[in-house]
Amino acid sequence: MSLNAIDTGKLISELEIPILILQGDADFQVKADVDFLAWQDYLGTHMNVTYKLYENLNHLFMPSNGKLDVSEYNTPGNIPDQVILDIATFLKK
């Protein structure tokens, strides 16, 4: 079965466990102004969903160098503490 054949939105909307959706606003592969908003529209006020949008982070949750292509993935760096803290806080709930 192809992953493209799975209705991910339907699958996630039926989950009864907490869901964490993270997005970097400098991600050129999964776009915040399209995909992140689509999740919010699709799931609406689903009570088990937490959304986090991070300024200037790319697809790898690393600070973007502004190139908006895969070459920026070669730049060494660290995931910001806030992302790690948000994930840890979510997991502790």
TrEMBL record:
<dbReference type="GO" id="GO:0052689">
    <property type="term" value="F:carboxylic ester hydrolase activity"/>
</dbReference>
<dbReference type="InterPro" id="IPR053145">
    <property type="entry name" value="AB_hydrolase_Est10"/>
</dbReference>
<dbReference type="InterPro" id="IPR029058">
    <property type="entry name" value="AB_hydrolase_fold"/>
</dbReference>
<protein>
    <recommendedName>
        <fullName>Serine aminopeptidase S33 domain-containing protein</fullName>
    </recommendedName>
</protein>
